[in-house]
Amino acid sequence: MGLAAGFVEPLESTGLHLIQSAIAKLMTLFPYKNINQCDIDLFNQQTEKEYLRIRDFIVLHYKATERDDSDFWRYCQAMPIPSTLQQKIEMYKETGRIFRQDDELFNETSWLAVMQGQGIKANNYHPLVDRLSDVEIQRRLQNIESVIANSANLMPDHHAYIQQMLS
């Protein structure tokens, strides 16, 4: 468990989650002293799936970057990516939807933030929006804007924050 099991990357700091997840799997799959191969295999399969889904999320950060100021970043833009990540990107581009599999660590909001933030745009939108009136859509968007503005107003500006940390 922990770093002995593997290390993905510090970008999203997944280490603690992976330790906690491994403990939960151990408690579920090995509740008694006897250990059998089917439990071991299931533990390993579930752990591998979890690591691969985290890998995809991390790779997205590097693949979708617009940075090209070094060989490293140019390599990241051109590198082949896992088919599971390619499928997730294509689904988002084509439909505006993000599908979360098997309670993977990163939720739809996290995937959306990285895709939109890195310039991956959807060519369509979720069809549930068609069930809402224009007035309701506008109300929801204004609510989101208000929450963001209120949150930003509660935070100190950069200079004030630094001064507070220094004192």
From TrEMBL:
InterPro entries: FAD/NAD-bd_sf (IPR036188), Flavin-dep_Halogenase_NPB (IPR050816), Flavin_halogenase (IPR006905). Gene3D superfamilies: FAD/NAD(P)-binding domain. Transmembrane segments: none annotated. PANTHER family: FAD-BINDING PROTEIN (PTHR43747), FLAVIN-DEPENDENT TRYPTOPHAN HALOGENASE (PTHR43747:SF4). This is Tryptophan 7-halogenase.
